[in-house]
Write a structure and sequence with these properties.
Length: about 110
């Protein structure tokens, strides 16, 4: 079942995909569930990162650069998001098409 209806331009398609319904475009309940789940998971990940970094900084022994921890957290977050999109799209070709559709074809909202 195709829950997406074609919008008049790529700009509105990306807005619909990112923010929900716009005009005649619709989005499924599964997408809202995925959006909420992603928000909760990323919030918990950031909270855990802060707590673990604080704990590691208070221990005795060799210290690490906090920027290294932040970069690694961003790498894990990006990998997790790409895996979720891969699972949602079902194939690597679908993942690449999704990234092309959302990030490259509609560059104006991403530039702002």
């Amino acid at each position: 079942m195709n829950v997406y209806r074609v919008c008049s331009s790529n700009y509105f398609y990306a807005l619909k995909f990112i923010y929900g319904c716009f005009g005649s475009c619709c989005i499924s309940a599964t997408a809202y569930l995925l959006r909420g789940t992603s928000l909760v998971v990323l919030t918990l990940q950031n909270a855990c990162l802060i707590l673990i970094m604080r704990y590691a900084r208070t221990r005795l022994g060799d210290m690490f650069y906090s920027t290294t921890a932040v970069v690694m957290a961003e790498i894990f977050k990006t990998t997790g998001c790409l895996l979720i999109i891969l699972w949602q799209e079902g194939s690597m070709r679908g993942l690449l098409h999704h990234l092309d559709r959302v990030m490259i074809c509609v560059y104006l909202p991403n530039v702002k």
